[in-house]
TrEMBL record:
<feature type="domain" description="Response regulatory">
    <location>
        <begin position="5"/>
        <end position="121"/>
    </location>
</feature>
<dbReference type="InterPro" id="IPR000673">
    <property type="entry name" value="Sig_transdc_resp-reg_Me-estase"/>
</dbReference>
<keyword id="KW-0378">Hydrolase</keyword>
<feature type="domain" description="CheB-type methylesterase">
    <location>
        <begin position="146"/>
        <end position="331"/>
    </location>
</feature>
<comment type="similarity">
    <text>Belongs to the CheB family.</text>
</comment>
<feature type="active site">
    <location>
        <position position="280"/>
    </location>
</feature>
<keyword id="KW-0597">Phosphoprotein</keyword>
<keyword id="KW-0963">Cytoplasm</keyword>
<comment type="function">
    <text>Involved in chemotaxis. Part of a chemotaxis signal transduction system that modulates chemotaxis in response to various stimuli. Catalyzes the demethylation of specific methylglutamate residues introduced into the chemoreceptors (methyl-accepting chemotaxis proteins or MCP) by CheR. Also mediates the irreversible deamidation of specific glutamine residues to glutamic acid.</text>
</comment>
<dbReference type="InterPro" id="IPR011006">
    <property type="entry name" value="CheY-like_superfamily"/>
</dbReference>
<feature type="modified residue" description="4-aspartylphosphate">
    <location>
        <position position="56"/>
    </location>
</feature>
<dbReference type="Pfam" id="PF00072">
    <property type="entry name" value="Response_reg"/>
</dbReference>
<dbReference type="InterPro" id="IPR008248">
    <property type="entry name" value="CheB-like"/>
</dbReference>
<keyword id="KW-0145">Chemotaxis</keyword>
<feature type="active site">
    <location>
        <position position="158"/>
    </location>
</feature>
<dbReference type="InterPro" id="IPR001789">
    <property type="entry name" value="Sig_transdc_resp-reg_receiver"/>
</dbReference>
<dbReference type="InterPro" id="IPR035909">
    <property type="entry name" value="CheB_C"/>
</dbReference>
């Protein structure tokens, strides 16, 4: 198998050398070009046709956002943006707007786990098909039939998930009757920028989940660093945030959310397992299906990483395996929304 062709873009020669060294420690990847600025990056992208590009977000003359926008206009290629500070997390919505797949903190030389995560993320990003996405808000739906017996939609999402979430949420009408609770594995501090970015293309109100919040119609995103659970208090559906230990490295964990949903609502749930590494959410989705809930896994073709959907399918937790475009269509069909 030919190694992935990687182009790296950074104005620092030291950073370029480190990035190249880290990438080429993996025999499945090869750095085919190094650009010291935006114009170099545009030229080398056209000449080398890389499979994936890693771009430093902060550069003189042309920053990572502008470079990404130009590449996506001229030679669409999967792009991972790198930043050196969590303070830049507030800018990550610009990363999604520009066309980058995701944004992550640049690893430091004394952090082998993050160096390994950087390599894994590059590989995952390289698999994403670059297609134009409809960002037009879904039209208002004046009427809808009652959603019973389902009372909530729970979504698990990880690597490559944000653009899929955008596709799903942007195609649901503002009259969508069920609350939607989302666990997206994301670096701490990045969730608000993800939320703001998703809101630009969704007619549904999207909020960051808070302790004790009453669950109503709309979208609730789990904060990074805490588990999100669904509870019933005094007859009302509410959210609970907990700091229990991470589950297989994940906090929030989709399994925690899904299992809390089963305890609270039994099978009156719809659950969706999207792209991601590992198997978080798989046992929870199986529990929802066993309880009589409605379950969907994202298909392999559209998944950046098929790990999480595949785990749910292997356990028998997925009733349907669908593309991102088919998922909202199926939800509306089952709920009788026209």
């Amino acid at each position: 198998m030919k190694p992935l062709k990687v182009l790296i873009v950074d104005d620092s020669p030291v950073q370029l050398a480190m990035l190249r060294n880290w990438i080429e420690q993996d025999p499945e990847m090869k750095v085919v070009g190094m650009a010291s600025g935006g114009q170099d990056a545009l030229r080398l992208t056209a000449e080398l046709h890389p499979d994936v590009i890693a771009i430093d977000m902060i550069m003189p003359e042309m920053d990572g956002f502008r470079v990404t926008e130009r590449i996506m206009q001229e030679h669409p290629t999967p792009i991972l943006l790198l930043t050196v500070s969590e303070q830049h997390a507030t800018m990550s919505k610009n990363a999604h707007h520009s066309g980058a797949i995701t944004l992550m903190l640049k690893p430091s030389p004394d952090d082998p786990l993050n160096i390994q995560k950087f390599r894994q993320t590059l590989k995952a990003v390289s698999k994403i098909k670059m297609v134009r996405r409809n960002t037009v808000k879904a039209p208002s739906t004046p009427t809808s039939r009652p959603a019973a017996p389902y009372q909530a939609v729970l979504i698990a999402s990880s690597t490559g998930g944000p653009p899929i979430l955008q596709t799903v949420l942007s195609r649901l009408p503002d009259a969508f009757p069920l609350p939607i609770l989302i666990v997206q594995h994301i670096a701490q501090g990045f969730e608000m920028s993800l939320l703001n970015w998703l809101q630009t293309s969704s007619a549904l109100p999207i909020q960051l989940a808070r302790e004790g919040m009453e669950v109503q119609r709309g979208v609730y995103l789990a904060p990074s660093g805490t588990h999100l659970e669904l509870l019933r208090r005094q007859g009302k559906l509410t959210l609970h945030l907990s700091n229990h230990a991470p589950i297989k490295g994940h906090r929030p964990s989709a399994n925690i959310l899904f299992e809390s949903g089963v305890r609270t609502l039994g099978g009156n749930l719809m659950a969706i397992q999207l792209t991601g590494m590992g198997d978080d959410g798989a046992t929870g989705m199986k529990a929802i299906r066993d309880a009589g809930g409605f379950t969907i896994a994202q298909d392999e073709k559209s998944s950046a990483v098929f790990g999480m959907p595949q785990a749910a399918i292997k356990l028998g937790g997925a009733q349907f395996v669908l593309s991102p475009e088919e998922i909202p269509r199926k939800l509306k069909e089952v709920l009788g929304l026209f």
